Amino acid sequence: MERNEEMEHNEEMERNEGIEQSEALQIPNEPEQSETTCPDKPAKAKKINWIKLLIQILSYLLVIAVTAFLTLSLFRPRYSKLTELQSVIEHMFVGEYDKEAVEDMAARGMVAALPDRWSFYLSKDEWEAYQTEMSNSFVGIGVTVQQREDGIGEDITAVTSGGPAEEAGIQVGDTIVKVDGVSIAGMSATEARERIVGEENTQVQITVRRGDQELDFTITRKVISLPVATGTLLEGNVGLIRIENFNTNCAQETIAAIEKVRAEGATALVFDVRNNPGGYVNEMVEVLDYLLPACVVFRQEDYRGNKSEEHSDANCVEMPMAVLVNGDSYSAAEFFAACLREYDKAIVVGEKTIGKGYYQQTILLSDGSAVNLSTGKYFTPKGINLTEVGGLTPDVPIAVNDELAAKIYAGALEPAEDPQLQAAIGALVGTNG
After folding, report:
1. Which pTM value belongs to this model?
2. At what angle do helices 124-134 and 189-196 cross, to 10 degrees?
């Protein structure tokens, strides 16, 4: 026990002495800085590491910010003048306005500013009316009208045979001055038309001026199907085929008209496409396929540069032909005449055509409106674009005065009084066996 206690005592003394010796050795020679610096080194290193980490994070954020800025600069949408103007009007215009009407006008102006007379914008209501027009049927009273220059109303230039207007007693030459008691003086042709047409089996009161009288007619609106093509056998066994347009049913009715006059004894054909506004390519191609042997009848190229051709089969009509054209023969009407001439199947008589070598695609917009935009070019079988050459020049040029032109447009000119038709018949005499 005593030994153990002594050992413990001695060990404690040695420990104390060792501590004192250590402290004695440090005091005289060790600088104060060394005494305070050594314990703080881990704290400073930790502080330096945090600074480095913060710098790295800021660097990464800077790179991300620069990248985002460049990306937005390159790919963000460029707001157009129209968008800016719309925002200015919405936030600053002091009065009330019809937003839809403003947008329609802006869209109409944008398309109208294109260097292309054939592209046009259609409001929602106009698009619905356009579809009806292209179908060659509509609900109305069965008249064709033309706005008067003096603005007092609409002159009736044609009355549909068997239609409601004819049944009521309306005549060619009457001037519509009121619709349902409201004067249409000063109205646009579109506004006047919208008042005349309407729902099927509804009634409309039409006031016409006939000479010095004003006459009222109450007419029930009906579905009017317009004849697209008619066939008449003329003297000399010449079949006259008048084609109003190349819209819906054109091919079916044109072929039926040709077969009708052939069955009646026609040995030559005259196609009248004067004042024909054109229409659907497929309708024109079907008629050409019926008339021509196996060949290319039409070429086209879209805005992407894709080219395509339309062909006819071997079946054809073998007889002399002529085509009547004028300055209001557009698009499909022009190419119809050009194709027949390029294959030496017809002579072209009349006046130089308009020269429409672009085709349009109707693109529907989100609000129900539409844009009819030129998206490609048409070419004749020989590769001629009629826009580039300024239209189709007749083989036999025959001009008519304004009075005759108006009668031709209205279909009110007898064949014997039509100088262009008589010139076509005369040109066929030598080839008509």
Report:
1. 0.69
2. 70
